[in-house]
Write a structure and sequence with these properties.
The structure is a single chain. The chain is α+β, with helices and mostly antiparallel strands. It has a single domain, classed as Alpha-D-Glucose-1,6-Bisphosphate, Chain A, domain 4 (2-Layer Sandwich), CATH 3.30.530.20. The chain contains 5 helices and 9 strands; from the N terminus they run H-E-H-H-E-E-E-E-E-E-H-H-E-E. Strands 1, 2, 3, 4, 5, 6, 7, 8 and 9 form a 9-stranded antiparallel beta sheet that branches. Helix 1 crosses helix 4. The longest helix is centred in the N-terminal third of the chain and has 23 residues.
Length: about 180
């Protein structure tokens, strides 16, 4: 019985420690990763804006459902192997150069926007820079996002998926340490 109480006490202490650290972390963070691909800006822009094709090249996406536009902004629901479906909205789009999307759900423990910048490098090579301006509301999730997963994990997975369609000519480059605001 004594050992069981010690184990329970240790578990409570660890969870408490994680909560305290999580509470001390900022809700907002920013992470940027860049990778260069053997593709034109038009080819890459077509890939990242054709949301209904996501399940064919992003292994974690199982289904995409287009929704009616909201005030002229494109919307869709993305279902993945991990978690509940998420609604996304395009905030800004400049063909072949820029895409800014955000999570439209307000009932999730996280949110934020992603900015995709495409920069031609010549000879059919284009750099894709993805910046996540994320928010993690739950302190335990903040701890996990910061210390276990890393704020740039989703970006790196996304760019690795792009590399299944177009050859990458470099390794992902962190364009700046994950900044906390």
């Amino acid at each position: 019985m004594r050992y069981a109480l010690i184990v329970i006490g240790v578990i409570i202490a660890v969870v408490g420690f994680i909560c305290i650290i999580g509470w001390s972390l900022p809700v907002r963070h920013q992470a940027t990763v860049e990778r260069t691909f053997r593709a034109t800006p038009a080819q890459l822009f077509d890939l990242i804006t054709n949301v209904t094709a996501f399940p064919s090249w992003r292994s974690e996406v199982t289904r995409v459902e287009l929704l009616p536009d909201e005030n002229g902004h494109r919307r869709w629901v993305e279902a993945t192997k991990h978690g509940a479906p998420i609604t996304y909205l395009v905030e800004r789009m400049v063909p072949e150069r820029l895409l800014v999307g955000r999570i439209a759900n307000t009932d999730l423990p996280f949110g934020g926007s992603w900015t995709y910048e495409l920069e031609p490098k010549g000879d059919g090579v284009t750099a894709v820079r993805v910046t996540e301006d994320g928010e993690v509301y739950n302190p335990i999730f903040r701890f996990v996002s910061r210390f276990v997963m890393g704020h740039d994990r989703t970006i790196r997975q996304y760019l690795a998926a792009v590399a299944t369609r177009f050859p990458a000519v470099d390794e992902p480059i962190e364009a700046g340490a994950a900044a906390h605001r």
